[in-house]
Amino acid sequence: MECFRIDESGYTGYDLLNTEQPFQGATAIAIEDEEARRLIREHFPTLQASELKYRALARRPANRPRLMALQRDLLNHYKCVTYICDKRFMLLLMFLDYAVEPFYYEREIDFYQDGQNYSLASLLYAVGPTILGDSAFDLLLVSFQRAVKEKSGAALADLVQVARTCHWRELPEALGPLAQFAAPECLQAIATPGVSTDATLVVLQSLISRMEAMADGPYRVEHDQSKALLTYHDFLQRYISHEDVATFRQSEIATISFPLMLQSVKQVDSKTSPAVQLADVIIGAAIEAATSLKEGRTGALDPWNVLGLHADHQLIHMLPSTDFEGQKQFRLGSQAAEVIDYFAENFHKP
Questions:
Q1: pTM of the model
Q2: Residue 167 and residue 150: Cα distance in Å, rounded?
Q3: Dihedrals φ, ψ of 248, to 5°?
Q4: Sign (positive/negative) of CA torsion 302, 35, 237, 240?
Q5: Which residues of 41-60 are buried (b: 16+ CB within 10 A; e: fewer)?
Q6: Mean pLDDT, residues 175-180 taken together
Q7: Euclidean distance between the first and final Cα of the chain, in Å?
Q8: d(CA 93, CA 109)
Q9: Which of 154, 176, 221, 247 ranks highest by number of CB atoms within 10 Å?
Q10: In 46-90, which ranges are E strands?
Q11: CA-closest candidate to residue 91, choices 157, 166, 155, 15
């Protein structure tokens, strides 16, 4: 049975405003350990370390051409998919999910139609600090993140008050539900047990959607024993056990269907899995490339060269875009609301 190995990078738990790690992501690669071991020996014949780690290798300039060659080999000859998200943008999407959308849902308005939530999150990302007030906008995100984590009356009241201190009338469709109405349906959504700003589940769902498309038939997954992946191991088991038949369109290029072809999930020690180590190299380089481009600095590898190694279908990114017409076309007819309801009903119960 085909096996995809997964490793992740950039995990900071619920804190999506971590300035040192602005991106989070993961890579899945279909390769057996024996083949992975051969490739590591071929590209790093003198490697002495017990484990291949991107960060450690990239520190030495002599290793960098080898890292590029290894990634080129993997991306050209093996099934690979990498997901990267801007965590600040992800937090804005979550803000719209919980602090805004329930207000519209109660009024029978499809807030997710044709991906308009992505457009609004992108607009907030681009101009929020300018039109709402720089410090007030940052405080709004901090307060929202805290309210989701603590779920206390004090934290929720503080969030409403912060929303009211923003110049919220400049963008009432996003801030009005909290600032004008203190919408109880939104506050209830934020306080719901299990609601979190941890982005790991979003990352894994995106990888699963792509692995389902790449797999030739039933397959299995092995992932590193990182805290991020261990956190949602149980959710993955629920997906595997789900036998209902359902298909949802998520975007122009993404659908997800149940039951999954994914048969099993196993945790492994990356030190004993050369295949997981190769996933670490790909996601490590991709995260560094995205961070370098965002911050306008130079990483160990040229970021454009790294990202250019990936074919379009090998790189999924959740990044803000002010091409609103393009975003609308890309998500035209998406079933985002149905997906959210279905997942909440079938997978996110305590």
A1: 0.92
A2: 26
A3: -130, 140
A4: positive
A5: eebbeeeeeeebebeebbee
A6: 96
A7: 32
A8: 17
A9: 221
A10: 79-86
A11: 15
The half-sphere exposure of 299 on its side-chain side, counting CA atoms within 13 A, is 24
**How much is the average pLDDT of 294-308?**
91
216 phi/psi in degrees, rounded to 5: -80, -15
Provide CB contacts within 8 A for 65, sequence distance 6+: none
Beta 262-268 vs 219-224: how paired, if at all?
A: parallel
Q: Tell me the torsion sign for CA atoms 190, 134, 202, 196.
A: negative
Write the CA distances from 320 to 127, 235, 333, integer angstroms.
Answer: 12, 27, 20
**For 192-203, what is each residue's pLDDT tens digit?**
998 999 998 889
Tokens of 52: 């291949």
- The whole-number pLDDT of residue 119 equals 92
Is residue 49 classed as helix, strand or coil in its secondary structure?
Answer: coil
pLDDT per position as a tens digit, 241-276: 888 888 887 666 667 888 999 999 999 999 999 999
The secondary structure of residue 216, as a DSSP letter, is S
Inter-residue contact 229 to 11 (CB < 8 Å): no
String of b and e for 214-238 (b: at least 16 CB within 10 Å)? bbeeebbbbbbebebbebbeebbee
pLDDT value for 328: 61
CB 212 within 8 A of CB 257: yes
**pLDDT value at position 158?**
98
Strand residue runs (E) in the chain: 2-9, 23-30, 79-86, 219-224, 246-249, 255-258, 262-268, 315-318
Give residue 331's pLDDT band: very low, low, confident or very high (50, 70, 90). low
Q: Count the helix, strand and coil residues of the chain and give each as a percent rounded to the nearest 5.
A: 55, 15, 30
The pLDDT of residue 122 is: 95
- Residues 68, 18 contacting (CB under 8 angstroms): no
7 residue type, one letter: D
Which positions ≥6 away from 256 have C-beta within 8 Å?
205, 208, 209, 212, 247, 248, 250, 339
